[in-house]
Amino acid sequence: MRRAGLGEGAPPGSYGNYGYANSGDNACEEENERLTESLRSKVTAIKSLSIEIGHEVKNQNKLLAEMDSQFDSTTGFLGKTMGRLKILSRGSQTKLLCYMMLFSLFVFFVIYWIIKLR
């Protein structure tokens, strides 16, 4: 006849009435819950950050589209102006072109002088 030793006859995974295995399982479950909650909060933060990035990208794309249209209109305006200057330089109005250039230099000099006085 064998005597039941320590832990013999107990169901596998438990160590008698002391509950050591159950407390280990509880500790693992609590740690898993804590890690799951931490992961959930990080995923939520990343989700909100990605949504904000998406909004920022949409705003930047809209701004770039507006700038593109403004650059196109400016390019057209400068092209027309250069065409007019070429017409002026070809004709007999070179005297007028020289006056415009001198006036432009005078305006830039006045602006430079005003900035220097500050």
TrEMBL record:
Cellular-component GO terms for this entry: endoplasmic reticulum membrane; Golgi membrane
Segments passing through the bilayer: 96-115
SMART domains recorded: t_SNARE (SM00397)
Main location: endoplasmic reticulum
InterPro entries: BET1_SNARE, T_SNARE_dom
Domain T-SNARE coiled-coil homology: 26-88
PANTHER family named among the record's database cross-references: GOLGI SNARE BET1-RELATED
BP-aspect Gene Ontology terms: protein transport; vesicle-mediated transport
Protein name: BET1 homolog
Record's function text: Required for vesicular transport from the ER to the Golgi complex. Functions as a SNARE involved in the docking process of ER-derived vesicles with the cis-Golgi membrane.
Gene source species: Jaculus jaculus (Lesser Egyptian jerboa)
Topology within the bilayer: Single-pass type IV membrane protein
CDD domains, per the entry: SNARE_Bet1
PROSITE patterns: T_SNARE
UniProt entry keywords in alphabetical sequence: Coiled coil, Endoplasmic reticulum, ER-Golgi transport, Golgi apparatus, Membrane, Phosphoprotein, Protein transport, Transmembrane, Transmembrane helix, Transport
Self-association state and partner proteins as the record states: Interacts with SNARE complex members GOSR2, SEC22B and STX5. Interacts with LMAN1/ERGIC53. Interacts with STX17.
Matching SUPFAM superfamilies: SNARE fusion complex
Subcellular location: Endoplasmic reticulum membrane; Golgi apparatus, cis-Golgi network membrane
Family under the similarity heading: Belongs to the BET1 family.
